[in-house]
Amino acid sequence: MNISLSKIKTSNPITNIYIGSFLLSLAIFDVFVYSFFNLNITSFLPGNLNLFFPLIIGFIGLSFIRMEYSGIKLVDNINKHINPSNFNALLTLLIIFTVLKAIPPALSWMVLDANISGDTKAACTGTGACWTYIKVWFKRFMYGMYPNELHWRINSAFILVIALGFVGYFFKENLKKYLALYYVVIYPIIAFLIIYYLISGGSFGLVWVETGAWGGLSLTFIVSFFCLIFCFPLGMILALGRRSNLPAVKYVSICYIEFWRGVPLITVLFMSSVMFPMFLPEDFFMDKLVRVIIAITLFEAAYCAEVIRGGLQALPRGQYDAAKSLGMGYWKMHIFVILPQALKLVIPGIANTFLALVKDTPLIFVVGLAEIAGMLALAKTNPKWLGFAMEGYIFAAIIFWIICYAMSKYSYNLEQKYKTER
Amino acid sequence: MNNKIKKLIPQILTILFVVLIFGFFTMNAQVNMDNRGIDFGFGFLKQEASFDMQFTLLDYDGQDSYAWAYVVALLNTLLVSFLGIIFCTILGVIIGVARLSQNFLIKNSAAWYVEFFRNIPLLLQIFFWYYAALRALPLPETAEPWFGVTYMTIKGYYIPSMIWENLNVFLSCLIAAIVSIIFIRIYARKLQEREGKQLPVFYISIGLLIILPMLSFLIGGVKLDFELPVLKQLAQTSFIFEGGIALPPELIALVVALSLYTSTFVAECVRAGIQGISKGQKEAAASVGLNPNQILKLVIMPQALRIIIPPTTNQYLNLTKNSSLAAAIAYPDLVLVFAGTALMQTGKAIEIVGITMLTYLTISLSIAALMNWYNKRIEIKEK
User: What mean pLDDT do residues B230-258 have?
Assistant: First the structure.
């Protein structure tokens, strides 16, 4: 038999496949047994060879299997997708072995040795994760220090706001032209009123809850929601301003956009908390949350403006010329011809901006608002629950990952949809 | 005439609006500062800072001025950004290329890597590394050496420091090597254009880079010693490493989180760049008779880089701005030291936040200007 590592030839390819798959399965079996049952079946080999044994065996096995065409579907698929060359075979083996090695410890930490029963730290006896901690603190992570018996107010406010967001879908044909008006002007006002009266309370017989008690994931949603609906109109004005042919308007817009895009959000938040009160009249008090929302809105509007400008630039010149030749003025042209088309183009971009915004909101923790990162820091230093930082951060990471991944997939789908529609 | 007025009015209104807002703010600021007995000015920069920093690149102690504290803190910020940019580029290029691999497993693991690290807020990642992952490291007395001489402990990463003798001789040798490489490259290009001969520039460059610094060791009297970190017992149960360089856990957590997060974006830029080159380019280059190396170097890379570099620089800029999250885990960067400690001590909110923002703005705008210039230069000039 002629052994050359790049391609091994025998008279009968089936023999090769048998030998190769035997060696490959031996290698995988070795790693599997070692990582899952802690049995070292190759312990008779000397030190280093023992470590690299599955790699070497698997590598030789894969080079046995590698051939132009075998007629067996599985083997051909393996060759095409994970075994096209020596280098790829090595990487394939490394990935398979890493996954095999990583599964048992991860599984035992997260599930098998983990605890979820009980209400105190004493319940966590295993070597694994302590999900009891998450269970006990769950309401705090979601609602912050908001009083327990009033959580229904946050829930119902969110449900109402989301439901109102879908109202646009059910608009009748003759009302469709008011859709933009609804979403840009009426919806934000209603949403603001709902959140103000329901979550803040103070009237209609509801108890007043100060914003200092708001927190957790719900605060993340409130902040990102308001920032999104407020930054959109502002961004639109700035985008139009930047493309205007009036020099003063243009340069004011450019200065604004470049300024906010050039500074990190954290300094903007510092500004809102220490510098902004100095700029307001003496007896004028503004809530910290409101200041933060204003700061993030101003910041995000610059990014929004750039996205919308991209949409405006993507429109063909003919649209402008056609609108002008019909005798439309600047505002008429933009409201009835340009913006409806451009805004449709930028929806995926806006979704991405919103995604970045949601990922940025944990930052409000640095100015003392206890959203989820803040609640985690609080829970971590609670003397009754010391030493569970890992569980907390993994929990928060999973929640954010689900939200952000879903949003990024949604915006990607939108992008694909609009790409084909044009 | 009518048209002119029509154009003038909105402009005047805009300017009036801006002036009014600024005027309103300045007036309020004046009143507020008068009431609190604060005066506006940058005189405080010369005062003694009287706070300490855990980690500095230059000599600094509490007796130095606020201005010096600013410089030291800015350097810390730049250090994090610099390290982050290097690591995120390396990782990003690897992942970006891996996403285009024909190997199913490699392609998918790279894709999952990107989806995983991109969709978790950076602040949470920093917290995770700092509060959870790095806290699980061993204490100094139980730490096993990595590569024999470095120690990864809960108190930081200890690496040997270099002690140079005649460092300037070594550095001048290095500079001489780089300068001569540049000249050789220019000469080689001219030679190829004139006579069609090719010099093995790559091997010559590597040779020069090795030989000249070696010569400085042999002839120039340059000496290099390593100071190894050594375990020292302070008290019964308290151990510490002495000697060498100690990288604090804050720095490590920050660099790890920033480079993992940003590398996903860099990977996407790299992928888009390589995918943006049409297959025809490769085939055309091959049919002209270039070998695979030349195709990559002369045809693919110059075009791919044109697509890759501008968005990647944008990501570097984002990384630099994101490095300000250092304040959340108490790494002494510009925001923590200047907008945090110094602001608390002096109470000069407007000046200090202004300086901090201006610093970041300067970095961003200068890199953006550089990028615009570069884009103009490499732009394909179509008729």
Answer: 81
Position A118 in a domain: no
Contact yes or no for B274/B267 (Cβ under 8 A): no
Q: What pLDDT was estimated at residue B92?
A: 92
Per residue in B52-87, pLDDT (tens digit) is 777 777 777 777 788 888 888 899 899 999 999 999
Residues A222 and A337 in one domain: yes
Cβ neighbours of residue B364 closer than 8 Å, sequence gap 6 or more: A261, A262, A263, B317, B320, B321
- B353/A275 CB distance under 8 A: yes
Fill in the DSSP letter of residue B62: T
B339 touches chain A (CB under 8 A): yes
The whole-angstrom distance between A146's CA and the closest CA on chain B is: 22
Higher-confidence position of A95 and A53: A95
Residues A18 and A136 in one domain: no
Confidence of residue B380 (pLDDT cuts 50, 70, 90): low
| Shortest CA gap B209–chain A (Å) | 30
Q: Within a domain: residue A117?
A: no
A409 has a pLDDT exceeding 80? yes
Q: Which residues contact B78 (CB under 8 A, 6 or more apart)?
A: none
- Choose, out of B99, B103, B131, the residue to mutate when testing the contact with A (most A CBs < 10 Å): B103
Q: What is the mean pLDDT of residues B173-180?
A: 88
Which residues are CB-contacts of A152 (< 8 A; sequence separation ≥ 6)? none
**Residues 369-388 (A) with a CB less than 8 A from some CB of B:** 373, 376-377, 380
User: How near does any CA of chain B get to the CA of A406, in Å?
Assistant: 9
In a domain, A115, yes or no: no
Does the pLDDT value for residue A134 go beyond 70? yes
Q: Tell me whether B343 touches chain A (CB under 8 Å).
A: yes
Please report whether residue A63 resides in a domain.
Answer: yes
Please, which pLDDT band fits residue A1 given cuts at 50, 70 and 90?
Answer: very low
* pLDDT reported for residue A3: 47
Strand partners, B146: B150
Residue A78 structural domain? 13-108
CA angle B41, B46, B52 (to 5 degrees): 115
Between A and B, how many CB-CB pairs are < 8 A? 163
Q: Mean pLDDT: which of B36-40, B154-158, B262-266, B310-314 is highest?
A: B262-266
| ipTM value for the complex | 0.85
Q: Do A400 and B124 touch (CB under 8 A)?
A: yes
For B:102-141, CB contacts with A below 8 A are: 102-106, 109, 115-116, 118-125, 127-128, 131-133, 135-136
B119 and A248 within 8 Å at the Cβ level: the answer is no
The phi, psi pair for B157, rounded to 5°, reads -105, 120
Instruction: Please report the pLDDT score of residue B267 as a whole number.
Output: 92
Q: Do A303 and A408 have their domain in common?
A: yes
Q: Given a cut of 90, is residue B255 above it in pLDDT?
A: yes
Query: Does one domain contain both A228 and A312?
Result: yes
Number of domains into which chain A is organized:
2
Judgement on whether residues A102 and A222 belong to the same structural domain of the protein: no
Collect all residues with Cβ–Cβ distance below 8 Å to A415 and sequence separation of at least 6: A348
DSSP of A134-174, one letter per residue? HHHHHHHHHHTTS-GGGHHHHHHHHHHHHHHHHGGGG--GG
Judged against a pLDDT cut of 70, whether residue B381 lies above it is answered with no
Which of chain A's residues have a Cβ under 8 Å away from the Cβ of B109? 95
Query: Residue B202 class from Cβ within 10 Å (0-12 exposed, 13-18 middle, 19+ buried)?
Result: exposed
Q: Is B366 on the interface with A (CB under 8 A)?
A: no
A239: CATH: 1.10.3720.10
CB contact under 8 A, B131 and A380: yes
- What average pLDDT is seen over chain A? 80
Q: Is A98 found in the same domain as A217?
A: no
